[in-house]
Amino acid sequence: MAESTTRRSRAGRRPGSPDTKAAILAAAREQFAANGFDKTSMRGVAKASGVDPALVHHYFDSKDDLFLESFQIPFDPRQLIPEWTAGGLDGIGVQIATRFLEVWDDPQTRLPIETLLRSAVVSDTAAEVLRSGLVRLIFAPLSQALDVPDALLRAQLVASQLVGIGLARYILKLEPLASTPRDVLAERLGRVLQSHLTDLSAPPGVL
Amino acid sequence: MAESTTRRSRAGRRPGSPDTKAAILAAAREQFAANGFDKTSMRGVAKASGVDPALVHHYFDSKDDLFLESFQIPFDPRQLIPEWTAGGLDGIGVQIATRFLEVWDDPQTRLPIETLLRSAVVSDTAAEVLRSGLVRLIFAPLSQALDVPDALLRAQLVASQLVGIGLARYILKLEPLASTPRDVLAERLGRVLQSHLTDLSAPPGVL
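Above: the input entities. Below: the structure tokens describing the complete assembly.
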């Protein structure tokens, strides 16, 4: 941020204008999509949107925030995960399932995530965006919160089940899965998410 | 097939030619993709490929067979499911997981299924093909074999987990999930597939 005073308002954009924030978000979306999370910088986004880097920092505390807002992710996993795990890991499966279904059952909060998922299936760069976003914002904090072996693999198995529900319930619209009430489904899913996360029993023969 | 004698070889194609079979399969793929499973008929495929309907019946016993071969599905679920369930439902989760991973771990057998899945995510007609194929060839026989309530929903929850693994391990290539050995993964997955299929415990609080 040290260079901000020398580069102020070079494109004449003023802080506080809704246009300015929208321009930053549009540039961020493009940069994340073209270069992935790691190679995108707040300074690069400032340059692409023609604003002072200080202004990007004014609106967004971090690259994580910029990422979440540019893809309109309707929740902050960095807050949610500590909340979910505060009282231990019992019941975390159902909590994750319920929150996921709430977001996907509402067309407005589903849209940006569904769009990102659809893009990731057909485009390697979009896949990289989704992958890096998931790793940074969900897998890393979730596996840190889990006091179990293979925590990262477990977090990814959870993601695989949820992404599969996104596809089967909302994109393929399989029936009766698509019209199963949220609370019934949250129970079924919660059970297997809980198993993915905390079941330590080893050989399949035991089950 | 009664009309076959009057329409024989109208396009001059001869039975037994590899070209003839290839032409039928190409036409079938197009018809299934354009119209879905239910609205595609063996006679329609014959017409589209310019061969006598009797010839389509000569190569393919049923529309199911035509479907499986036109999308190069590398196994016959109508055989597999009775095999899996012959000795009861214990261990069926691991059997399904192992077979799924074998098919997807081999790029050659994965390709047609991965292509169908990618198409289904971006195209409603491809989604309809995948949906109708799944319902007819997997969900129906699997839920018939299950002596449990909500059998069809359970079969679809299994499909959601597997489709999610297809995405996360093979398309998004999340690590360590993508390089986890098949037998380790089959155990983890088998456990939750088994739960989806046969776990009758009700409230999530019990788990």
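Note for the figure: The longest helix of chain B spans residues 124-145.
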